[in-house]
Every structure is written in C-alpha cells, then in structure tokens.
Amino acid sequence: MAIAAAVTLPHTAVNRRNSPSPYSASFDSFRISSSSFKQPISLKPIAIKPDFRVFSTMTIHPTEKSSQTSLLNHRKQGQILHFVKYHGLGNDFILVDNRDSTEPKISPEQAVKLCDRNFGIGGDGVIFAMPGTNGTDYTMRIFNSDGSEPEMCGNGVRCFARYIAELENLSGKQSFTVHTGAGLIVPEIQEDGKVKVDMGEPILTASDVPTIITPNKNESVVKAKLGVDGLIWNVTCVSMGNPHCITFGTESSEDLVVDELNLSEIGPKFEHHTMFPARTNTEFVQVLSPSHLKMRVWERGAGATLACGTGACAVVVAAVLEGLAERSCRVELPGGPLDIEWREEDNHIYMTGPAQIVFYGSVPL
User: Which of helix, strand or coil describes residue 187?
Assistant: First the structure.
C-alpha cells in the first residue's frame, strides 16, 4: 500500500459550519511524496497555536502534474481514504468518516500499515464513525495498531466525540449516544472543549473481566498474587468493557516508582500472561495522594502509549477497592492528566479530558 498523503494542518480557528469540507483543501494545497523529493528545503519550527508546533525533516514542493494526475486518478477510482488525525493526551488516532456503511472502509491489515509511524500516517489505532446501532446516534469501532479490535477506548471516544462535532458542524455543549463493543457510551463536549464521558459501570466479576485468577473478594480479584518475571505482583482486575490488570507494587515492594519501570520488557509479559484469556491492558500505578495517582500503561494491541482513558478509570476503581484513594481523582499519565470520578450513587465512572485535532489528510490505499 503506497503512502503519499496530502496533509492540511489546522492553523487557525475556522467556523466550519460555513466552510467547505475540511478534506477539500487536501488536494489544493500541497503534497508530500516520498517518491518525488527534489531540492531540500530547510524549515524552521512553525508556531501553529500555543500547544502545537510542526517540525519537518521532509522536502515539500508543489505537486507536479504527473503526481497530481495519479492522485486524482486514485480518487476517481475510490481508492483515496480521507481522515483526520486526533490525539487525546498523546494517544493518537486516525479518524475515518464511515457513516455511510456498517462495514469499515479499510481492513485490519491496512490499519496496521496506516498506523506505522515510519511508513504510514502513524497512530495507536484507526477509529471509524459509523451509523448508530439499536437506537444510538453513532457506532464506534476501532482497529488497534496491530490489527486487533478492542471493545472500547477511553481516549479514542473523546477524539470520536470531537470528530462527530466537526462532521456535523456542532458547536458549544453537545452530547450523543455511542454504541461500542463495551456497550453504550455517552460523551459530552464541554464549553471549554474538553470531553466528559459517562463510561458506565466497572465490571469486577473475574470471569467477566476476563481473568482466571482465583477470585479473593466475592467474585472479584482484588490485590491478588500474580507471578510475572520472577516477582510476585499484587494485582486487581477490572473491566471497563475491555480487560485491565492494575498493580500498585510487588509483594516485597508495595510502593511503585513508575518512572523506573522497564515498561517494554515487563508489559508484554502481563499482556500475554496465561491468566488473561483475552490478553490484558496493564496499568502500573504510583499513589501520590488519595486524590492524585500517577500511572504508566501497556495497552493490549498497542504497547506503551502516552495515555489510556479506560485504564485511568480502571486505576481509580482498583485504588478505591484497595483502600488507597478517594472516588474522585486526578490521574497523571505520560501525556497529561485525566479527571476520573467513580460515583457512588449510580456506580458509573465519569472521565474528563481533552481531545485535539492534529491534521487533516488523504491517503491512497
């Protein structure tokens, strides 16, 4: 699959209700092509907005007639994928408008290629905005960077909400219902642009997480012992529609310093442990205070990421169950903080955090 993407950067605030489709600019601006670089151009960092800078080590030149014709031919044949790149605290996704079909526009194998950070667009996954199911407004499906399909993604659903607002020309405070593999999710865009998501109730029954670790608290696994890499870890297992194994330390050292972990070495050993028949996401947590937690995550199917929304929710549940934290916490992730609340009155978990556009693009498949 060739990767020759036309890219448009969001450099100013635009009223998209009265603007043409964001994708239309892709063919009228410039083209980045690895096959036709000419004289190199020295580019300085460009300030796009206070929290976004672009650095380029590529040569950028106006599209030649031949390459433009090739790209347009691809488009006429229906082989162009339009997308918008978003991130939620650095957990980045390729968003695709799939509202005209219940089948994803690309295959898992194509998603793997697109997510490649050297030879593709780069991302932790591809998210499809699809027609609603069973009365919901929309359906969200995801292919991870390894081609697997998770049930849900917390950072992904915040990006999804902002993407829907963009597609539907919505502004201000908005909410809608989203069908996911984890069930009904209700994101709400706040006045400040952040997205608050009702993530539903945590699943604690061991067989439903799923894990085959022997339950030690009713039907749940709370601060149970798990042997990994020659150490006995204390783990609590929670599902947010997808499985999570949370640890605050080992049997010999209960106070983790998460920045000292070799995540790429220990993470896969948790993910593929025989005690997790569907594999697992793993969160390593440091308690800074009863209302302030710090975590690093190894995501099932994506590896080490800068943030994991469902993981942050699962961490607060685990911390409460182990008596380490309050029901309302700020969770620090490598990409930034999320505010998580596990409400006692309805047993639902609410996650609040940002989601931002990186760029618009089009790529031939």
Answer: strand
Locate 184 and state its tokens: 């009904």
Active-site residue (options: 159, 237, 245, 308): 308
Task: Count up the domains in the chain and report the number.
Answer: 2
Is 0.85 topped by the overall pTM?
no
Q: Which residues of the chain have pLDDT under 50?
A: 2-4, 11-67
pLDDT at 63 (0 to 100):
39
Residue written as tokens 């995501």?
Answer: 299
Could you report the per-residue pLDDT of 283-316, keeping only the tens digit for each?
999 999 999 999 999 999 999 999 999 999 999 9
The tens digit of pLDDT for each residue in 117-165 reads 999 999 999 999 999 999 999 999 999 999 999 999 999 999 999 999 9
CA pair distance 180, 136, nearest whole angstrom: 10
Neighbours of 42 (CB within 10 A): 6
pLDDT in the model for residue 312: 98
CA angle 333–336–340, rounded 5-degree value: 70
Query: Across-strand partners of 85?
Result: 94, 359
| 153 flagged as catalytic | yes
Tokens at residue 345, please? Answer: 């009155």
Residue 52: its pLDDT value, please?
36
Q: Are strands 91-97 and 80-88 parallel, antiparallel or unpaired?
A: antiparallel
Q: Is 237 known to be catalytic?
A: no
Catalytically annotated residue among 115, 153, 313, 329? 153
- CATH code at position 244: 3.10.310.10
Tokens (6 digits) for 336:
């930034």
Supply the pLDDT for residue 5: 53
The token duo for 81 is 């994928």
Q: What is the DSSP string of 256-309?
A: --GGG--HHHHHHHHHT-TT-TT--EEEEEEEEETTEEEEEEEETTTEEES--H
The answer on 287 and 171 residing in a single domain is no
Indicate if 181 and 161 belong to the same structural domain.
Answer: yes
Establish how many alpha carbons lie within 13 A of residue 290's alpha carbon, considering only the half-sphere containing its beta carbon: 8
Helices 154-167 and 309-321, axial angle in degrees (round to 10): 140
CA angle 113, 26, 98 (to 5 degrees): 55
Looking at the structure, tell me whether residues 212 and 327 fall in a common domain. yes
User: What does the block give as tokens for 153?
Assistant: 């993604």
Same domain, 39 and 165: yes
